[in-house]
Amino acid sequence: MPRLKQLTPKSEHLGLIIVLVALAASPTYWLLRPHLVSVTLDARNAPAPLTEVKSSAGVAMDAGLPSASRVRPAPALIRISVDAFYSRDIAATNANLALALAIKQMAAADPNGLVAWVKSLLQSGESFEGFDIPRIAGTAVEALLQKGDIALARSAVEQWAQVGPPLGNNTFEAVALDIAGTSPTGAMAWLKSLPASNDRNYALTTLSAVWVKSDPKAAMEWAMQLGSADGREPVMERAFNQWAQDDEASARQWLNGHLSDPVAEKMVVSMVAESDLAYSNPQEAIVWADMISDPSARLENVEDVFLSWARRDLDAAANYIKDDPALTPAEKKQVLESFYSWKNGGAAN
Predict the structure, then answer these.
(1) Calpha distance 238→57 (Å, rounded)
(2) How does pLDDT run across 40-78, given as a tens digit for each residue?
(3) Which of 45, 136, 190, 215 has the fewest CB atoms below 10 angstroms from its CB?
C-alpha cells in the first residue's frame, strides 16, 4: 500500500526556499525567475496542502490534485517554456528580436516542444505577444534549420499544414529552398504533396523561379503538369518571367513552341510588358504583341512598345507600324496618334 505523507505549509515553504537558493547560482534561474515567483505565490495561496503519495518503488506522485491537473496538456507546459525564453526587456525596444531569440533558444533546448507549441497555436487560433502565426511559424522553421534539425523542420511544416492555414509562404519556402539545394525536383514535389493553400501555392511560384535559373526547360515542363488547384498559371508565369529576364532569346524560343497552352498568352503579355524586349528589340516585341488574341490588350501592348521606340527613333517606329500587317488601318492610326497625344500632353505639363 502506498504511504501517505502530509506536507505542511511550513515544509512547503522551506522546500521552495531550498530550491530557490540552489538555483540562484545557475544562469537558468534568471530565465525562469518570473515563473518561479509565480509558483511561490500560488503555493502560498493554495486552499489546501498538497499530498504526496509514495509508491512501493519510492516514486513521488501527486494525490491531492484533481486528475486533470496532474496530467496537464502539453501546449500549456510548452507555452511556459517559451515564455521563459522571451525577454520583455528586449521586446520593449525590439519585439522581433525578442521573438527570434526566444524561439532560437527553445529550438536548442526543446525542439520538439517548439514544434508542438506552434501546432497548438494553429489549433487554437491564438497569437503570442501580438505576433501572428505566420511570423511565429516562419521564425520557428528558420531556427530549426539553423540548428541543423532539417528533418524536424520538414516534419513540422507537414504537421502544421495538416492543421490548416495560415502558415505564411516564408514557412514553406524556408524548408523547400533547403531541399532545393540538392534537388529542385524534390523541393517542388514536397511542396505539391502538402495541402493546397495560397501560401503553399505562392511558395511553388518562388521555387519555380529558383529552379528555372539552373534548368529552365525542366522547370517549365514540371510547372505545366500542375493543376489549377496548385496554381499552375502563376507558377508558369513566374518561372517564365524569370527565364525571360535571364535569357530572353531562349525563353522566346521555348514559348514559340507552346503557344497552344492556355497560359501562353499571359506569358506573351509578360514578355512584352515586363521584359527588356521592348527596348532591346522593339520590332520583335511588336511581333509578340500582335499574337495577343484580346484586341484591346493587343493594341495597348503595341502602343506601349511603339511609344518607347518612338521616343528614341520616331521615323523607324512610325514606318514599322504603317507596314505592320497584323494591324487594321484604324488601329495603325490610333497607335500613331498615341505618340502625338503623349508628346502634346508632355508639353502641356
Answers:
(1) 65
(2) 333 333 333 333 333 333 333 333 333 333 333 444 444
(3) 45
